């Protein structure tokens, strides 16, 4: 099992949509419900009132966001014709997370960072350092922040290195939570990987693609020369493609996996 945390409330992975269905006009076409990839919005019309002159029957919407299903993609925010939906962001409590890491069933921790600076990451890491060795894998998920990306990653690795005894992994979050959109989303993720492949001073660890992953990703990786298939004993021979094939150690199917 993996535990996810964030070092900044601006991280898109740690937010939920929220609105009061009683604020919605009863005749709303409910585009938020249609656009949600996780089926996390459920609205239905009900009749309320006493069927009297002073309190006549009228339509009203009930339901709203199913918090346990919402993963914060934000698709509903711009489509609301009445601008009633808001995003509520939060930061996972590091003390609670530290206690979770001491459990026998937690194998990995995924740390989301926005790439805005190392101070918040350092604060979070220090609060977890006493329990971080209880996990086998430390994964850092981050976006491409341009020319400073590799320097930022190396700065993060310098913070983590004294306390890591297991494996570490970098999740290249090309276009967060957009895998169900289409080919354009995965191009950004693969471009991030191509950028990393061209840099020799990147920090050690496994590299995994995330954000924008879908059915086009493998083909895009092959065209970029970044895909390697592995043959296991008793299986057919596989073909190795590309000169940087060892860079990508895995693919994280998020939003696309939820859709299928």
- Regarding quaternary structure, what we see is single chain
Number of strands: 10
Give Rg in angstroms.
22 Å
Strand percentage: 15-25%
The biggest beta sheet reads: 6 strands, parallel
What distance lies between the first and last C-alpha atoms, to the nearest angstrom? 22 Å
Strand order of the largest sheet: 1-6-7-8-9-10
The DSSP helix count reads: 8
- SS class: alpha/beta
Taking pLDDT < 50 over at least 5 consecutive residues as the criterion, the unreliable ranges are: 239-245
Order of helices and strands: EEHEEHEHEHEHEHEHEH
Helix content: 25-40%
Overall form: globular
How would you state the average pLDDT, rounded? 87
Keywords: 4Fe-4S, Iron, Iron-sulfur, Metal-binding
GO molecular function: 4 iron, 4 sulfur cluster binding; metal ion binding
Organism: Panicum virgatum
Domain 4Fe-4S ferredoxin-type: 15-46, 61-90
Characterization of the model:
This protein has 260 residues and is α/β, with parallel strands linked by helices. It has helices at 31-35, 76-79, 94-100, 119-128, 149-160, 183-197, 217-223, 255-259; strands spanning 2-6, 15-18, 41-48, 58-65, 86-89, 108-112, 137-142, 167-173, 206-210, 248-251. Strands 1-6-7-8-9-10 form a six-stranded parallel sheet. A two-stranded antiparallel sheet has the order 2-5. Strand 8, helix 6 and strand 9 (206-210) form a beta-alpha-beta unit. The longest helix is centred in the last third of the chain and has 15 residues, at 183-197. The protein is globular and about 65 Å long.
